[in-house]
Amino acid sequence: MEVTETKPPLLERLLPFLAGKLLRLIGRTSRVRHEGEEPLVAQLASGRPAIIYGLHGHLLIGACDLGRYRPYVMISQSRDGERIAHTVEQVGFRPVRGSSSRGGMRALLQMVRLLRGPVACCHVVDGPRGPRGEVKPGLILLAQRSGAVLFPVLYATRHKWQAGSWDRMQVPLPFGRVVARFLAPREVPQELESEAAEALRLEIEQELSREEIRLEAEVAGQPGGRGGRSEPEAPASDVAEVGS
User: Fold this and answer.
1) Potential cystine with 61: which of 22, 88, 155, 211 (Cβ 3.0-4.6 Å)?
2) Is residue 12 within a helix (H) or strand (E), and if so which, with residue range?
3) What's the whole-model pTM score?
4) How far is Cα 59 from Cα 169, in angstroms, rounded to an integer?
5) How far is residue 178's CA from residue 158's CA, in Å, rounded to a whole number?
6) Longest CA–CA separation in the chain, Å
7) Are 177 and 20 in contact (CB under 8 A)?
8) Helix, strand, coil proportions of the chain in percent (round to 5)?
9) What is the pLDDT of residues 115-139, one digit of tens each?
10) Are 51 and 182 within 8 A, CB to CB?
């Protein structure tokens, strides 16, 4: 008996298109202050690859900002992953299908092959299912196999809606102010013993947790940030409009 493929319902095909348009709107109207981005720019300008990594809950804010690098990104082969892939393509990302739970090794090897020259990829360390903030070993393995330098980035904004999901997904709102903080880059030796790799994974995990708390406190103007208050607004030259 011949099996014919059925097209997904119209609404399901429209949702990624509409979501992509919304991300472009948010990106174009957001004012983003980039902190510590210079090493990433220099890395790519020198003709070397980079891995930009962060938390799953910052995925949408990052999607509004990082598409200007035309990065590759690993996305699950699930139906939800299909929708996400079609969505982020509209803001400049280049999906590579696979995740830690399905098709992961094949996607990782494909990503290694792509990370040649002045190319960036984005990686969510605790995806696709968490727990939140738990860095998966794939980040270290990808850096080892590709030789690309790791560049962590965290986002914070007051202008958002935050989901009650496991990752506390932040949905940025149009016309908001966003801080994108790039932490110090890391080079991962290709020859790294398993114990050293695990120690590095934990170090990265702790750094992301610590710096996320600090950044959110600064943006909210709460004690625990630098001086217990948010930093002054950046000059106009330091604030970038993104998503164009």
Assistant:
1) 155
2) helix 10-29
3) 0.84
4) 8
5) 8
6) 71
7) no
8) 45, 20, 35
9) 999 999 999 999 788 899 999 999 9
10) no
Q: How many residues does the chain have?
A: 244
Surface-to-core class of residue 27, CB atoms within 10 Å of its CB (0-12 exposed, 13-18 middle, 19+ buried): buried
DSSP structural state of residue 151? E
Handedness of CA 56, 60, 61, 63 (dihedral sign): positive
Positive or negative CA dihedral for 208, 212, 214, 218? positive
Task: Give residue 52's identity as a one-letter amino acid code.
Answer: I
What CATH code would you report for 34-232? 3.40.1130.10
Rounded CA-CA distance 95/76 in Å is: 9
CA distance 76 to 83: 10
Predicted confidence (pLDDT) per residue in 152-209, tens digit: 999 999 999 999 999 999 999 999 999 999 999 999 998 899 999 999 999 999 999 9
**Burial label, 20 (beta-carbon count in 10 A; 0-12, 13-18, 19+):** middle
